[in-house]
Amino acid sequence: MNEIIQAMKERRSCRKYQDAMIPKEDLEEIIEAGLYAASGMGKQSPIIVAVTNKEVRDELSKMNASAMGSENDPFYGAPVVLIVLADKSVRTEVYDGSLVMGNLMLAADAKGIGSCWIHRAKEEFESEEGKALLKRLGIEGDYEGIGHCVLGYRADEKPVPAPRKENRVFWCE
């Protein structure tokens, strides 16, 4: 089987991470893969905010936990958060950003790095606190939060894929 298709079938979310930081070279390669995601009309509207600073990471975690009504770390202890944002003026922003998220997770898995898509980025960056954070980071524009791709080395074994549900493909030949 083709190695790309095999990777798509075997990638699984990680919800328990080691404390070890990922080398910057590996992060750059993962981010580059995200930037090569397909986008509507080739507009390349999504941007990625790479957060390795622990204080900012923890601030994001608190904002995200608050959006879900919890005090637990929604990032499962992952040391890296890649925030995917997309320009609201591009009508395909959610789809484009979702493709970036998929590329990031597949690239991380290819490098032996665990990942998980964490939601509530939309709520975070629609809040005054989220907008202030982006401004503080020098990010200007009207962006929609698509997701957080949390990254780190797995603290447990990668699970085996569950069997796929039946009756999900309909042929019209």
Describe the structure.
- With 173 residues, the chain is an alpha+beta fold.
- Helices cover 39% and strands 16% of the residues.
- The protein contains six helices and four strands.
- The protein has a four-stranded antiparallel β-sheet with strand order 1-2-4-3.
- Helix 2 (24-35) packs antiparallel against helix 4.
- The longest helix has 18 residues, at 93-110.
- The two termini are 25 Å apart.
- The model has no long low-confidence stretch (mean pLDDT 96).
Distance between the termini: 25 Å
Strands, count: 4
- Give a short account of the largest sheet: 4 strands, antiparallel
Radius of gyration: 17 Å
Q: Give the averaged pLDDT, no decimals.
A: 96
Shape, principal axes of CA atoms: globular
Q: What is the chain-wise order of helices and strands? A: HHEHEHEHHE
Instruction: Point out poorly predicted stretches.
Output: none
Count of helices?
6
Percent in strands: 15-25%
In percent, how helical is the residue content?
25-40%
Adjacency order of strands in the biggest sheet: 1-2-4-3
Structural class: alpha+beta
